[in-house]
Write a structure and sequence with these properties.
By secondary structure, the chain is an all-beta fold. It has a single domain, classed as Virus Head Decoration Protein, Chain: A (Beta Barrel). It is about 0% helix and about 35% strand. It has no helices and nine strands. The protein has a five-stranded mixed β-barrel. Strand 2 (about 45) and strand 3 (about 55) form a beta hairpin. The chain is globular, with a radius of gyration of 14 Å.
């Protein structure tokens, strides 16, 4: 049972825009979700309806799923998942906290790669062009990246 209620998200929550100084205006679009394996702060690819849907898996990189919802955990204290056909925000340009592959150790300026289930790392997987890490792993397998 959730017994803690706050007016803001935890620092470094996957899918939250990064609030560091000098942040330019982000570009965030809305898409519909394909599949039931969507989470916040992961890489998403173009779905079966380009410009309308996104999914997790192989394909052309569309952006990072952004948590513009009001909650980060459900009433059981579990991370919120987004279901088939739900709308989701997708950041194409900007700075955002992302979910890392377990044990990833990115450093400032490292390239960003898509690995298992949309998780990100500084090595292996598929390179995201024009992206770099802007923080280290802050714990809980979370770091911030910049999409240019």
């Amino acid at each position: 049972m959730n017994t803690e209620y706050k007016q803001s998200f935890n620092y470094g929550t996957p899918g939250m825009p990064w609030g560091g100084t000098g942040t330019a205006f982000p570009v965030i679009d809305t898409r519909a979700v394909e599949g039931d394996n969507m989470h916040f702060g992961i890489a998403v690819v173009v779905g079966s309806r380009p410009g309308k849907t996104v999914k997790v898996g192989e394909g052309t990189f569309e952006g990072i799923s952004v948590n513009t919802w009001v909650i980060e955990k459900d009433y059981r204290g579990q991370g919120v998942t987004v279901h088939e056909t739900d709308p989701i925000s997708v950041m194409k340009i900007g700075r955002v906290w992302v979910a890392l592959k377990e044990g990833a150790t990115p450093k400032y300026g490292d390239p960003v790669y898509i690995v298992d289930d949309g998780l990100l790392s500084n090595q292996g997987g598929t390179l995201i062009q024009n992206a770099r890490f802007i923080t280290e792993n802050i714990g809980s397998d979370c770091a911030a990246i910049e999409l240019r």
